[in-house]
Protein: small monomeric GTPase
Organism: Prolemur simus
Amino acid sequence: MDLQRPDSYQGGAGPGFDEHVLHKTILVGDSGVGKTSLLVQFDQGKFIPGSFSATVGIGFTNKVVTVDGMRVKLQIWDTAGQERFRSVTHAYYRDAQALLLLYDITNKASFDNIRAWLTEIHECAQRDVVIMLLGNKADVSSERVISSEDGETLAREYGVPFMETSAKTGMNVELAFLAIAKELKYRAGRQADEPSFQLRDYVESQKKRPSCCSFV
Ligand SMILES: Nc1nc2c(ncn2[C@@H]2O[C@H](COP(=O)(O)OP(=O)(O)OP(=O)(O)O)[C@@H](O)[C@H]2O)c(=O)[nH]1
């Protein structure tokens, strides 16, 4: 996917969209883990199989979601995972309110690199940025090399919520974005009668687990 024009509008809310109240969310992780596919699944409800076309640069999609009866506007930035674009994508971390950090459960290197990604995030992003770890391609159980438990353990170590997703089947894709939207809405202005919101507890209570093969 070619996303060279950061100022491009790629669908979502339509005319009259108020960009001043957008919550910026960024997708990050190694090349090929499924960032673009995850966003396409969330935005358009589809998965485009076939040859892999690496993202060039960075681009965004606006999306309005309804959380607890309120509209929350997400501006979701899809970054290129390839090393050569890192200096470009780093510049976008600073304004992000949330980061979805992906690895591929069939690719050990992408999981091992999560620590380096978290170091970069902590160096470049806001201190209170919301981070969620996602183990994508959970549908490819025959090629799994990273167990759910490994993902859980790493997420616990860094104190971030975790779930496995599939951009192909849609498993947990909407939940990942809705949970982020719920947290950002909660932070933006808690109503007096609103109970406190714990993102990790919410994710744990809502997420679907792959029906088999959580061990490798
Ligand atoms: N089976 C399966 N394949 C997936 C999934 N997500 C992505 N893919 C495939 O993995 C390949 C890479 O997906 P992309 O979404 O382009 O990966 P990316 O992280 O955006 O890659 P960069 O743009 O280079 O950073 C493509 O061939 C996708 O079809 C998934 O959940 N399940």
Observations:
- The CA atoms of residues 136 and 192 lie 37 Å apart.
- The mean pLDDT is 85.
- Residues 173-188 form the longest helix (16 residues).
- The pocket of guanosine-5'-triphosphate is lined by residues 31-37, 49, 52, 54-55, 80-82, 136-137, 139-140, 166-168 (CB under 6 Å).
